[in-house]
Amino acid sequence: MMTTHGEDEASDRTLVAAAQAGDGDAFLRLVARYRARLEATLRRAVRDPARAADLAQDAIDAAYDELADLRDPDEFYPWLRRIATNRMLKDIRWQGRRQAALDRLRHHIPRAADPLVRVLIRETAAELSRALRTVLVLHDELGYSIPEIGRPPRHQQGCHQEAPDARPRGVPEAVC
Known about the structure:
Blueprint: H1 12-20, H2 24-46, H3 49-65, H4 76-108, H5 115-125, H6 130-141, H7 146-150
Helix pairs in contact: 1-2, 2-3, 2-4, 3-4
């Protein structure tokens, strides 16, 4: 089914072929044609306009990168919608896992007071990833709360570069 949009507008097939040949303007015309529809679809699913817009942009970026894989140029919008749906589902799963992990941390990690437990934690920490080891040291050794650990580091006002040493105070360089 060839999609046409008015007498003077090119079909999806024509625009996809041009975009696959390297015509960036053709891809932009396809995006302009379907962006509002894609965002509306995502907005109904996630019920957050900003998140829907971000997911739509992610899907559009992925579609641009994967345009050579589109088999049927007449099916550009369904293909784009599938990419967006997969991105949305991945995002929802990630949000759920992130929240579950935060909940577990918030409710199930008491600060170890027993010196023997601290030694066992140190020995086991060597097997953890750098990020998990940092969380463990911040919480167990330095007494940071879980919300404090989850907060991004503050940068000096007016500073446009990442601080050379973004470790929280008191954290040894070997840990981070």
